[in-house]
Design brief:
The structure is a homotetramer. Chain A has 9 helices and 18 strands. By secondary structure, chain A is an alpha+beta fold.
Chain lengths: 356, 356, 356, 356
Amino acid sequence: MSNSYGEKFKITIFGQSHADAIGVVIEGIPAGITLDMLLISKMMARRATGNAPFATARKEDDLPEIVSGVVDGVTCGAPLCAIIRNKDTRSGDYDALRSVPRPSHADFAAYCKYGGKNDVRGGGSFSGRMTAPLAFAGAVAMQLLREKGVTIGAHIAQIGTVVDDPFDPVNVDAATLNALKGKRFCTLNDNTGAEMQAAIAAAKQDGDSLGGVIECAALGVPVGTGDPMFGGIENEIARCVFAIPAVKGIEFGSGFAGSSLRGSENNDPFCLKGDVIRTETNNHGGSLGGLASGMPVVFRAAFKPTPSIAKPQRSVDLLTKKPVTLEISGRHDPCVVPRAVPCIEAACAIALVNLI
Amino acid sequence: MSNSYGEKFKITIFGQSHADAIGVVIEGIPAGITLDMLLISKMMARRATGNAPFATARKEDDLPEIVSGVVDGVTCGAPLCAIIRNKDTRSGDYDALRSVPRPSHADFAAYCKYGGKNDVRGGGSFSGRMTAPLAFAGAVAMQLLREKGVTIGAHIAQIGTVVDDPFDPVNVDAATLNALKGKRFCTLNDNTGAEMQAAIAAAKQDGDSLGGVIECAALGVPVGTGDPMFGGIENEIARCVFAIPAVKGIEFGSGFAGSSLRGSENNDPFCLKGDVIRTETNNHGGSLGGLASGMPVVFRAAFKPTPSIAKPQRSVDLLTKKPVTLEISGRHDPCVVPRAVPCIEAACAIALVNLI
Amino acid sequence: MSNSYGEKFKITIFGQSHADAIGVVIEGIPAGITLDMLLISKMMARRATGNAPFATARKEDDLPEIVSGVVDGVTCGAPLCAIIRNKDTRSGDYDALRSVPRPSHADFAAYCKYGGKNDVRGGGSFSGRMTAPLAFAGAVAMQLLREKGVTIGAHIAQIGTVVDDPFDPVNVDAATLNALKGKRFCTLNDNTGAEMQAAIAAAKQDGDSLGGVIECAALGVPVGTGDPMFGGIENEIARCVFAIPAVKGIEFGSGFAGSSLRGSENNDPFCLKGDVIRTETNNHGGSLGGLASGMPVVFRAAFKPTPSIAKPQRSVDLLTKKPVTLEISGRHDPCVVPRAVPCIEAACAIALVNLI
Amino acid sequence: MSNSYGEKFKITIFGQSHADAIGVVIEGIPAGITLDMLLISKMMARRATGNAPFATARKEDDLPEIVSGVVDGVTCGAPLCAIIRNKDTRSGDYDALRSVPRPSHADFAAYCKYGGKNDVRGGGSFSGRMTAPLAFAGAVAMQLLREKGVTIGAHIAQIGTVVDDPFDPVNVDAATLNALKGKRFCTLNDNTGAEMQAAIAAAKQDGDSLGGVIECAALGVPVGTGDPMFGGIENEIARCVFAIPAVKGIEFGSGFAGSSLRGSENNDPFCLKGDVIRTETNNHGGSLGGLASGMPVVFRAAFKPTPSIAKPQRSVDLLTKKPVTLEISGRHDPCVVPRAVPCIEAACAIALVNLI
């Protein structure tokens, strides 16, 4: 079932954007863990607001209510269920969309799949809002990974055509990753960040939107983590990352750029660093044959520009089968990428906690 | 378990490059299907030789023996097991590699994961040879999909820096896809194909290797195919495609390039084509919210250059913990991309047959 | 993960007896179903009170709150999450039990499994209370099955040594099964029911408890339903039925008694009833080779006597490792069997809805 | 998929009685295990012949060929595939059965499920022969369990109306269990065994068959093994045991008999044995709330009498829809119970190795 993921740390996400609630059930958290509520609330806050001024005008305090699995703040071995109430919903905004699908949204496909019975309010179960329970589960996964020495962090690598400095794939360290989490706009290079914010503001001004790329790194993943064939590091991270709306691509290490290199250029020689075997370069992005090499796991995820834009667009009325010009009102991010940074971290954490 | 995939059409792949056999068990094939052995043998042949002169010197007739699930050529509802004997193995070639991991191969990670007990002969279970049962299962999946009106085909989109013409993502048709399958070197543009072959020959001459990109399209996927969140078209295709060794990236539709567009540029307006609702462009690559839109599903997979090269490389002896210069003998593709084309089709077919 | 079950109609149960809430997420309900809330509330009420005067003194209105998956009473294709708040909890009752395991309860094993961090209040996640979300999910499954012509019903076949009339395994009809659901004490024979109630009252009087047997029948299961080996009718029903606390055995058709018959006595000859192929007898309980035969699926589940009794019992203090005499206070059923009848129906429905 | 079982030690069984081969793929065996081929071959031999004179006249040497997953006798971490060729098949015997289902066999249900395309030869994939790969996998599981201190053994508890002595559920020891495996007819009481053999001979003489009960015990299962709700010891053992053809019931501990006891009689008081906490009696059969209590896991499985009997029986021709008198030729066990003893051990081992 497609709302569940994982065998060891299994999550089941439920809800729709304008249902009473969204939430997640997590099975497989060991008993006796004191939940780090600060870590969780920071993760939720970064997703809710992007630490940035460009997020949607919709206000969600997004405080999860943990209704099971925890006794006096400590996990008891039973499944943890966290519920987030949907409060600030304006379903009226969406009435006009019932029969006119928004370009590049799931509306049309969902209409066909569910015979028109899908919840169209706020995008229903296809809304970016579904990443709130994902971020919650990701925060719990990050806490468990932290105890095993794994650190995950991400930055905005690109917005529109503005490109941030990349991670150093060999030497990126935990301090760098953690520092990013405190930033209002998390780029490695603040000047780039300023340019990106200007680009977003300009797109918003034009009633338009932007896409971008997020780069994520996971440090401390034990050598050999991952399984052959369908259960490799890349398979599982990709499977989780594509659960985030608007993601259209993923690449590990040198990725697509590596495809135009020769083997002698792209291969990563082994070397000794003290007693530890490492590679001199990290074009493999920390994964070889689906197994962790001990080097940083580094990947990049491509986000399409937000499909909800204020500009008029061409669509078709599904009932009358007539062309329609659509103007979308409602509150929408001109760019989801800043808020998606913790979601990418969460997806990575959920994949890795199941493999380690 | 990572060697299994699928819930409706479930495959379990077994074997190692130099074990007695490799093979696959397929559960979920309906009873009463007359297996199209020609389709299967063509698929296997394309993988074995790439229809091309650049494949590995290792000779494998790769004739699968179907030991169960079929009575007089017709499926009986029981799991189908196909076995491919490994014949032309020269395990001696690999003895020297036991403690010296080849750069950018799975050797080192596998050594750590399995405590040195992994099968190093020919790459063991991490060998590209494991794609033979994948291609077999993919051929069966393609037969089932064909009966539902789905056609899958792929071409070599890039080798090194040579780039083929792309698919027309809106109008690509089944005739184009099927014609590619008969080509000795399957590019859309034969001139490009000739350049690519020259590039491979040059790399081989230099004791080096090349990577590339394969573009794949699936036509006729019913609108609404796919499931939300973790079970979308992108999630499942990505999960299968990353099972192919050397794949380091995947993107759907406009993918990474789309990340630098604005919403008004990247959005695909809906339109009517007769009575059918389609999109004018196909930057979404046939998937919206993880669900098929009815447009061609189009994706690109990035392959790293073959890590096995004749040039000397730096590595470390795992036992002595000393730096070593490694020279790899044995028979290796200077470029796996041509032979990987049917593997990409197979991975796509296996993912889709589970969703439809 | 053990709190989840099913591939087509997948349930994930969460909660503990004295947590804020218990509940269930159901994936796989088709979109467009108007939930039959009356069916659901009757099922919940039968479980909560057993339609009988002997249920626990604990009052639970057990009204499920459906927080997702339903729009205006109609399913929308997204996972349905139903939450039941725990209100009338007296956790203080259980403090003494923290280190002294109750005989024949899960306490000791759970203490060891979870390092003493398990939720001991009210039995935590091992409480019979966890059957409330099971009953909810079972009611939804029964609604879906009803639309496919399947009727499920059960009766109390035995309490202590008092034995009810059995179902006629060949001719049991839907009217009989449905009539049972309206009974305050659901036996086929009311005289037997009166005797059983007297036996329960007597046990209660003695500070003791009783076990029993429930017999369940499913009519209209299409011939061929079920899968070979691990996915047969018996495998799946057994797997679900053993999720109900206190079940210690299950048998289909002639079951254990059939083991002492000869083949010629136990075999069920095929015959024609009009144009339909049936069997003259039904010692096979509706399942052959794990597949439905078209005859009523009939099985019996054995319940141990409620382990919580007022009589003093011998136990051991886990901390002091000293023998202890334990007297259990709190509110407990002298016999869970009457209230378990809808739970058995629910387990059967959940198994079958996944197979059909 | 119903031919697969397990998450940690996952088996996928394939084949039909008269296909080229039957076999099993096992995923999850740790690398570095030297397979105990003697244990495996003894297990296979006990199943093939029952160590007894009453087995089917069909001769199968049942030597498994291990085609992958093992290098020089040692597991390498890749999936192990074992193939058993079907040699002594006389498919002609079954031609007459194509349209006339044998009473109490899977024939009719399979005919309906697979549209008449199922493999009828020798019962196809519903044959008792499918327990050969189960026994193989069970032997591997028993080797892994042995290293964790777990011993599993079973005896024939009943044939027809002849009843063997039961295990002492509190004190049964490994020596007793292992001694049973060497017996030609494995009862605890040899006199009972002789009576059972006489009963089988008499039934055979009459062209009839017998059923029976097997009792199985698992010692050394660590306290807390198993998971709540759907993943308990009982759920998983039941799920595996019902994969064995002819099993119609299962009970743990006092089982059905315990249903007529009072709580004060059936409860098992905790006590100290040295420093270890145990129970004075073992009516719970080693499982409380689905979790192992540390006491022997004891269960009983009911087998129906072999449905294939020489006596004429009533059936219906599926094509002509006319009543038919059926006389079954071919080679059949008058009682499968003796040969099923290692299968029950195997099913128990496969369930437990996934839980521990």
